[in-house]
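Subject: design request, 173 residues
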């Protein structure tokens, strides 16, 4: 006697495979997009933190320098300039000059070697020293600094700017 054996095959059809592959590609694309977005946010936050640190350092250094100054030689009272020249109590530091050179703030004290106040990863896009000394008053400066953050020598596609305003006074005699 002959037996009739029917074999049922279980497996995926071509349509099911295409559907599963499409869903897999969609899921991978969504996950990669979220990952890239998180990485971008992290990088922006890291650059902003670096910028804040550098700005604070530069401003504190300028405050320390001006605290030891006797008078403001440049800019004259009531005017603005991109450079600052101070007469210092120590004659070997005369004149002390702070100016913008190639996007970085440079400190020159007398005949000493110039030093950079701003870091290599940041560059100033604007600096302004305003001599706001009142008639008969001690020296007062209003300082404006604008830092765009740089990354590996190129401006970031959406630059982060930090504008900083402060006022400093020379020490009383």
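Subject: RE: design request

Done. Sequence follows.
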């Amino acid at each position: 006697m002959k037996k009739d054996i029917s074999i049922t095959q279980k497996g995926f059809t071509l349509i099911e495979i295409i559907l599963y592959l499409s869903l897999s590609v969609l899921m991978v694309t969504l996950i990669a997009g979220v990952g890239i977005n998180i990485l971008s946010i992290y990088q922006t936050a890291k650059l902003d933190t670096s910028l804040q640190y550098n700005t604070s350092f530069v401003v504190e250094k300028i405050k320390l320098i001006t605290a030891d100054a006797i008078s403001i030689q440049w800019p004259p009272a009531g005017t603005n300039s991109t450079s600052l020249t101070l007469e210092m109590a120590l004659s070997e530091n005369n004149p002390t000059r702070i100016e913008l050179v190639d996007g970085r703030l440079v400190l020159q004290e007398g005949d000493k070697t110039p030093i950079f106040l701003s870091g290599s990863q940041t560059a100033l896009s604007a600096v302004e020293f305003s001599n706001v000394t009142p008639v008969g008053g001690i020296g007062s400066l209003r300082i404006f600094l604008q830092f765009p953050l740089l990354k590996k020598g190129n401006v970031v596609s959406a630059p982060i700017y930090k504008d900083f305003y402060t006022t400093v006074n020379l020490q009383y005699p």
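The radius of gyration is 31 Å.
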